[in-house]
Amino acid sequence: MSARTVLATTTAGLMIAAGAGGYMLWNERSEQQELDEAARNAATSFASAWSDRTLDRANYVGTEPAAAAEDFRTTTAQLGNGNVRTSISGFERNGNRATAVVNVAWTVSGGRTFSWVNPIELEKSGDSWGVVANNRSLWHPKLQANDAFVVDLDSGLRGEIRGRDNAAIMTNQSVYDISLDPTKATLDSARRLENTTGVGGLRAKVTAAKASGSKSTIDVITYRKDDYEERSSGIRDLAGAIVRERKQPLAANRTFGQPLLGAVGPVTAEMLKKDPSTYRSGMFAGTSGLQRQYDGVLLPKAGLKISARSQPDAVLFGAGAQDGKNLGTTLDPKVQTAAEKALDSLPEGSMGAVVAIDVPTGGILAAANAPTYGLERAVTGRYSPGSTFKIVSAYELLKKGLNPDTKVACPQETKIDGRAFRNFEGETLGDPSFRDDFAHSCNTAFVNSTKPFGASDLQQAASLFGFGTDLSKSVGVNGAYSGSVPASAGPTDTAAMTIGQGRILASPMMIASVAASIARGSYVPPVLVTSPAQGGDRTPKPLDAGIVNSIRQMMRLTVTDGTATLVEGVPGGEVHAKTGTAEFFEGGKAGAHAWLAGWQGNVAFAVLVADVPAGKGGGTVAAPVARDFLSLLARS
To answer: What is the structure's pLDDT at 157?
Structure first.
């Protein structure tokens, strides 16, 4: 054999050997890949079963699938039924054992995501791979065997409504929600709860719930602490009765500041539909008044803490609640209380309001309503202001040159384009000075004096006091009404508006602001909500000092010798005032709105008593309320 042949043979032999070795290497790699794939598939199957909540479909070593699934349910029960996303990373295999990491993202209460990495071990048992169940939990590295997640929800405290100098207006206090569990309640316990609470229909609701198999609790009533303690002995031991204590902002009593401040209660279906990202069933939120308008400020952000049952102090996820922010206002509890008590003297069912304003700042100290439910009148009401508007008319007359000492006749009646204008009580003063006409609220003197007014004269004069402006931004209350003084449509329109009737409208807040402007000597928009800060220009707009001084004197004369003598001599110092009576005839009924506006010291005020019988007026109906208000305030 030649050397070449030997070489060729040797080479051929080497090639065959190399080929055989390559086959063996390839075969070995194929087996390893199969093992990797099988182990990885077991890990992936476990993760998928987790996200689907079908843990009985995964493979395990050391426990049965059904037992693992039950352990999963009990361990994670408090995490809720939110979406769960899982993935596998960090896979490694060494022989018949492997490790991997399950990445978990669980959507929990409030839409937050609880994420963690959970190492797992896998083992080949027979022909299959499974997740190893050892002496720790399969579900989180910090859970022990037979441990569980514990979820603590903290709703947080709702922001409070605060007043002047941070005074308490609506502060967090204990309330008690009473409900019935229909699966445990009996007809006798429902009857007894009806008797204790005065809430009817509970037996029928329990009967219906049992018939339908409903397990939903039946809401009954919410009590303040004192009210609950009076009735607790008749509630606590009743079958099916549930008592839940929580904190909620409350005023000093049920009627304080209503309906301006508003109420807090369970979110309504309308709120859930309109803003599902903010509200959820079972929440408590503002349902009316300032509580509703500023719910976004006052509403707390719920807190959530997830821990292990075995280590409650070790927080696995979450953060504490963020309490709602306080709402700052200018309200003064003493002034508000005096205003509300003054309105208590009105006959039951009467409608009215008292607004008090701090003269230096324009801050609304009180906004009291009667009745204390239903419509808000003090800040948003729209009424003819009657002769309180003569403050504005007088300002324009004096601006045009009329002297308070000028004789201006006050006949019983005068006619403008054939329409008769009379004095409220049909009186005649003869030929008095204009200051006396003002003090005795002589309609005919004002009507005759303003005959030369142009179409926009009263409108422009009223604008100096803020009429016609958008006060909702400066006051901070939706619908805060500054009043309306349109341009005159002719002589009779001018005559009617001169005495605060016709097409002129104003809120009690606006009339109190007019009085405050005269007392201050400048116009400053009223304000009620101070935090969050409101918009609007609050730079004082000076009024004519000479004219203001004359009107002050005339308003003082109204108290000492005019239509507002009922407020003379009240404690607290001199009172300046102007009465008003806006007569109307609607639906075959004659009536009037009675007014009195003025100030004492640094407190300007307006009193409205609406829809009084014909013949009643500001000096006889509103003045007594003002007298009571000032007297109560002086004694507070």
So the answer is: 95
d(CA 235, CA 198) in angstroms, rounded, equals 12
Residue 474 neighbours by CB under 8 Å, 6+ apart: 480, 525, 526, 527, 534, 535, 536, 537, 538
Peptide bond into 385 cis (omega under 30): no
Which residues make Cβ contacts (< 8 Å) with residue 33, sequence separation at least 6?
A: none
606 alpha carbon, distance to own chain's centre: 27
Handedness of CA 94, 95, 97, 100 (dihedral sign): positive
Whole-angstrom distance, CA of residue 593 vs CA of residue 602: 26
Cα 401 from chain centre: 50
Strand 327-329 to 161-162 pairing: parallel
Answer whether the bond into residue 119 is a cis peptide, omega within 30°.
no
Compute the Cα dihedral for 13, 19, 22, 24 and give only its sign: negative
In whole angstroms, give the CA distance from residue 216 to residue 185.
12
- Residue recorded with tokens 């006749």: 409
Q: Tell me the pLDDT tens digit for each residue of 427-437.
A: 778 899 999 99
Task: Assess whether the previous peptide bond of 259 is cis (omega < 30° from 0).
Answer: yes
> Which letter, b or e, does each residue of 14-27 get, where b requires 16 or more Cβ atoms within 10 Å of its Cβ?
eeeeeeeeeeeeee
3-state secondary structure of 589: strand
- Taking CA atoms, 103 is separated from 73, 251, 512, in Å, by 19, 50, 65
Query: What is the structure's pLDDT at 483?
Result: 96
The C-alpha atoms of residue 483 and residue 463 are separated, in whole angstroms, by 10
Report pLDDT for 536.
79
The rounded distance, in Å, linking the Cα atoms of 571 and 632 is 9
Quick one: three-class SS letters along 296-332? Answer: HHHCCECEEEEEECCEEEEEEEEECCECCCCEEECCC
Rounded Cα distance between 615 and 624, Å, is 16
pLDDT of residue 19: 47
CA angle 357, 555, 585 (to 5 degrees): 80
Residues 6+ apart with CB under 8 A from 225: 173, 174, 175, 176
Q: Which residue intervals of 499-568 are DSSP H helices?
A: 508-520, 545-561
What are the structural domains, with CATH classification, of the chain?
3-147 (3.10.450.100), 161-329 (3.90.1310), 333-635 (3.40.710.10)
Rounded to whole angstroms, the Cα distance separating 237 from 182 reads 15
The identity of residue 340, as a single letter, is: E
503-526 pLDDT tens trace: 999 999 999 999 999 999 999 999
At 242-288, the pLDDT tens digits run 999 999 999 999 999 999 999 999 988 898 888 887 888 888 999 99
Query: Rounded to whole angstroms, how far apart are CA atoms 260 and 262?
Result: 6
DSSP helix/strand/coil, 210? helix
Q: What is the chain's Cα-based Rg? A: 40
Nearest to 134 by CA among 126, 123, 149: 123
